Amino acid sequence: ILNHIGWESWREVLAIAREHPNVMVETSWQPAAVIRRATDRLGAERVLFGSDYPMFQEWQALREVKEALSPAEYELVVSKNAVSLLGLEPGVHNMTRSAAEAAGERRI
Asked: What is the distance between the alpha carbons of residues 79 and 17, in angstroms, rounded to a whole number?
């Protein structure tokens, strides 16, 4: 998992990830445009949500992801991909939902 989609080196990170199908990227500290590019190049199944909390608030990070993705892609990135990667039972872990709801309630 490559954090921050490589920060300022996101182009290089996406090129590396395309060559290695076992590599995933994580969204923290990236604007919606870079998250969209990562999803377009790798597929939503290889993108994981990250907020870098407490340096960056969850609602801010979720806002960028929500702006970048379709509802189906959003669900994969903020929940289903991590559940699958960690081998968790679907539907049991719902920690992100409260933060996602908070993001939707804020006037941003």
From this structure: 21
- Which segments of 1-108 are extended strands (E)? 25-26, 47-48
Which pair of tokens denotes residue 1? 């998992």
Structure tokens at 29: 């500290």
pLDDT tens digit sequence for 21-68: 999 999 999 999 999 999 999 999 999 999 988 887 899 999 999 999
Rounded Cα distance between 34 and 10, Å, is 8
Is the pLDDT score of 97 beyond 70?
no
| CB-based contact 38:47 (threshold 8 Å) | yes
- Per the CB < 8 A criterion, the answer to whether 56 and 64 are in contact is no
DSSP class of residue 24 equals: -
